[in-house]
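Notebook B, p. 112. Complex prediction, attempt 2.
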Amino acid sequence: MEDTKNMIRGIIFTIIYIITTIVIPYLGFTWVKNLSIQGMPIQLEQVQYENIIFWIFAFGLIVSGCAFFAYSSPSQSIRRGIFSLLQVILNCFYIWSYRFSGALEVEFIFEFGSVYINLTQMILVYLGVYFLTILLKIYDVIDFTVNRYKIREEREQKLLQKEGK
Amino acid sequence: MILETIEILQLLADIIGVILVILQPVVVPIGQVMVFIVNNLLGFFPTSSLTFYIILFIIFVIAGIIANTSLVGDRLKNKFNKFDEKQFKKHSKHIPEDTEDAFKIMEKKKKSTDTARDNPENKDI
């Protein structure tokens, strides 16, 4: 029963991650690629677009797979802690891959000129926040490892009490 | 333009802006260190095809299914790691009074399930 519940939770979170890290960015960039403002088309360069989509799919898949492992693990378990940590690290790669792929320095080409948008500074703030999250996750792993007997005891007592009733 | 017309969005944008400005001096240098690390590590990731990433995704999912169905986190239900009553009592500081009875009920249930599973008549079920 418990493992089925964990699996369902894992599947739900994998779907959420696939939607948020792959589907929405893919649709967003595809929409932006052929966007036109007041009749004037703005275009992303084809190579740039393909590069962005490649990295979105690549890291989106790894992050989603990792999310499945993390969320299908029992709560407060060491493996959940480790995979949550791994997931945050992979998220950093995912975020930075936007820069790597050129998505943060987008040039919109109009009929009479172009607009250049640079979002690198915003990503630096994001990565800084992610670094603090990594510290928290490391603390979680240490906590789950040090208190593993206590956590197991509480979990088993709950189970025994439930079975006893 | 949308931000200028809807006041709540404008207010929200201002608040986020203030938070970012306050956090920036602390967080941006950390972000730069992260960028250095991530930039170096990204060199190891293949850029030719998605096959590597698809295989990695499948490995994570299969490993997750195997690990989390066989090790559900409760030793009572563990397939590989048998429940050790002595170990449980050794690390359990506050065992409630009804735990002993509950444990016996649990063991009985487990035994009856194991017997039913091992019965050759039930193999076809």
